[in-house]
Structure formats: structure tokens, C-alpha cells
């Protein structure tokens, strides 16, 4: 299903693609805005959604830049209704590398928040009087919504829910003391507990997108755990193969020197026979 996508363009050599279901979200935003504000309301809701996902792209580009510093290439960034996902040619196993790449995305959101706070301060949003009220209303309130959207994005991504950013940080921390596979399994167990709580909260309060997000994260986390288990089995298989191969080379009796001795003896016998 992740293959159902529309390829858009490239940013810094990384393909940007949109899942078909994203068009449904865009249509819903237009419909929801039109109910209360007509055409202008629809345009405002769609603009807000596009601006939010522009921040999602910047978030994913933060991951891609950090990965590039370690020589890991990003193939594409896929946008879906529940967020974005950067696809890399490989996932680093070294804890420090994984932790750095994981934390880079939320740091981008924090940087966006700092810029927005500076802009709102410049506009007088933090001063007293009617000028401040004007800033928080109308079109300027748009930037306040983007600020809180980035705050929510950074907070959600830093939850220890594998394979989200916080979950990868947890896996990297565990991998400093435990085998990589065991660290992945433990991070996945924590993710399932928190994810189930998130789904329950989403269903209870009618936050269906939040519930869908946590359900999707648990699903993708299970897929990655299986992938790590499969790669670990393959790694153990080849480690055992090369170990046996090395033992055969070390323990096998030398064949070449006796063969050379035999050839030398045969040569001497031929010479002795010719002299007679």
C-alpha cells in the first residue's frame, strides 16, 4: 500500500512523493473549511494543511541531512495523512549514528518554533494592548497554529514509540548495553504499550487521526522488528559459515608440501633411471 504514491519532484536529490490517501485529507480540509467560511475558509484550511506538511518535509530533511553526514543516502520522502517518512538505503546499527539521525528531525521543528516566536515578537504579539490582540487574530493567527503544530510534531516524535524518533533514540540507548536485536525487541514492547494507550485516548476523545497514527506506528514497528530478526538470522548464518570455513582451513592437514615432496622424489627416480 505504501507503493500507492504520486512522485512530485526532488529536493536536494531526494525524491518527494505523496501517498494517494493524502488527497483525501486535502479534500476533507477544503470541505471542513468551506462549511464555516465558504471559499475563503476552504482556501485557508488547505493553505494551513500545506504549510503544516511543508514543516513535515523539513523535519524529514533534517533526518536526511544527518544521515548524509554518515554517508547514508535517502531515497525518498513519502507524505501520508498521518505524517511523513524518509526512506534510507540502510538503517545504521551504530547507536550514536542512529541517535543523531533520529534527533535531527525534532530539532528542525524546534528551530521552526524559534523562528516563529521571533516573528511573532517582532509583530508585537507578546506586548500588551489591542495591538497584541490584533496579532493573535485574523491571518496572523495562522503562524500561531503552525507554531503549535510544530510543537505537537516534536513532542509526538520524541515519545519512545518505536519506530518513531523517540523510539529509535530508545533503541540506540538500549543497543549500547544489549545486542541489537534484543534492543529492537525491547523498544518495540515499550512502543506497543504506549501505542495502545494512545489508541485508547484517540478513540475515547474522538481523535481518530491520533488513534490511526499510533495504530500505524505499531504496525510499522512490527514490520521493522521482523526485518531485524530476519537480518540477524542471516548474519548468524553467514558468521557460522565463515567460522566453519576458517576452521577447515586451519585444521585441515597441509596438502601442498607433501605433494611437492612426492613430485621431487619422482623427479629423482627418473634421473636415477636415466643414468642407469
UniProtKB/TrEMBL annotation:
EC number from the UniProt entry: 3.4.24.-
MF-aspect GO terms: metal ion binding; metallopeptidase activity
A cellular component term, taken from the record's GO annotations: membrane
Key words, A-Z: Hydrolase, Membrane, Metal-binding, Metalloprotease, Protease, Transmembrane, Transmembrane helix, Zinc
Chief subcellular location: membrane
Location in the cell: Membrane
Every Peptidase M50 domain range: 48-120, 133-193
Cofactors demanded by this protein: Zn(2+)
Keyword Iron-sulfur applies: no
Record-linked InterPro entries: Peptidase_M50 (IPR008915)
Membrane topology reported for the UniProt record: Multi-pass membrane protein
BP terms from Gene Ontology: proteolysis
Enzyme class: hydrolase
TM region(s), chain numbering: 12-31, 37-59, 100-122, 142-162, 183-201
Sequence similarity: Belongs to the peptidase M50B family.
Official protein name in the record: Stage IV sporulation protein FB
